[in-house]
Design a protein that fits this description.
Radius of gyration: 26 Å
Number of domains: 2
Order of helices and strands: HHHH
Shape: elongated
Number of strands: 0
Number of helices: 4
Length: 131
């Protein structure tokens, strides 16, 4: 099977368009970031349905409608997934590199002391409750 079996080649131009719209939406302060995939999916559905209606004309039926919804969903998912891959390859990689660096020995010793103090404090409060 080829990708042409799932998405019409003419609709592939919608992916960079959706990516650009997603970037614009992400930079809009009043729109929450979790809404971006849903907004892109809606735009993809509208554009894809319009394309299929114009392409088929009077022959537009239920099967064509379902096909348009499927292709719109694949386009939106590919766009959002591509963006996530880009983020993981850039931002996520930088975060991973920072985690690999061990803190200085004195910082680790301080963390161990804090954990020991917390355990001792908890034990003392439990002993106080028993008395």
């Amino acid at each position: 099977m080829y990708w042409k079996d799932f998405i019409q080649p003419e609709l592939l131009a919608l992916m960079p368009f959706l990516y650009g719209v997603g970037v614009l939406i992400r930079n809009t302060p009043k729109i929450k970031k979790w809404l971006i995939p849903y907004i892109l999916w809606g735009i993809s559905i509208i554009v894809t349905l319009t394309f299929f209606i114009l392409q088929t004309g009077k022959n537009f039926n239920g099967i064509t409608f379902v096909t348009a919804l499927g292709q719109a969903t694949l386009l939106a998912l590919a766009t959002v997934g591509g963006n996530e891959c880009i983020k993981q390859a850039t931002v996520g990689r930088k975060k991973d590199n920072k985690k690999d660096i061990m803190p200085p020995i004195s910082d680790r010793d301080n963390e161990i002391k804090k954990q020991d103090n917390n355990k001792t404090d908890k034990k003392n409060t439990d002993d106080d409750k028993r008395q």
